[in-house]
User: Fold this.
Amino acid sequence: MDTIKPTRLEKFNQYSKNNGHTFVVRIKGTRRYLELLRDTIQANHTVNISPIWPDQYYDYDFGLFINNANEQLASQISAILSLFERYLFLDDNLAQTFALDYHMQYQGGRTKIGELVYQAKYQNGTIDQLVKHFLEFIEHHPLYHQADYIYGVPSSRSPLVQQLVTRLGRDLDKPIAPIVINKHPSNMKDLSLEEKFQQVGKIFETVRVDEQNLQGKHIILIDDIYQSGATMNEIAQRLQRYGATVYGLVATKTHSQSNV
Assistant:
């Protein structure tokens, strides 16, 4: 699996009505990013959206037209675009995966979210602010907000993820997914990417799920720090085999796949 530098939405503005197009969305990034953005817009809105086209103008990569959108609908769509622009999109095997922020700043030191994770994970700090940031994302993203279940990526080092899932499940009134993992991962921080996937594969040979209750369901996987994404992607692939749609949401993304 490859993780990519998250793409950003560059522009959303009114387009010439002479061509029957009300708005145009242009992005600098991957086609898949725009496809996910389109699917998210259509999740809650009946709107006519053109096929995606390569954008050869204004230094953008792809674009699409939104047709016959009134101002109220345009405002709601604009809010979705702002959501995608504000968070980090991670291109992996899940239906969608986002991080609230990077773990470290490029110039050194932790980001605001990275510091909240560090304090909660290693300094017995409160998780209240982290929960608030997770809730803000989920409540404003139509597909995440409509999810049926929530579940935490298992960790060997800290109870933080399970604490987050318990709080989020309660505040969102979402049940924990009917999944049982009998063997939890050991510390994989210093393993190579290939070794991580081998280790995770052995762990999830012990996964048991309630297959009937997962068919056609939507599940949010929660984690604190996304490094290689090996564990989250392995869980997602197992759940997808049972007909579930899986979304990922993590507090932070490391710049490297091998360390925090």
In short: The radius of gyration is 19 Å. The domain at 8-86 is CATH 3.30.1370 (Ribosomal Protein S8; Chain: A, domain 1). The CA atoms of residues 154 and 184 lie 6 Å apart.
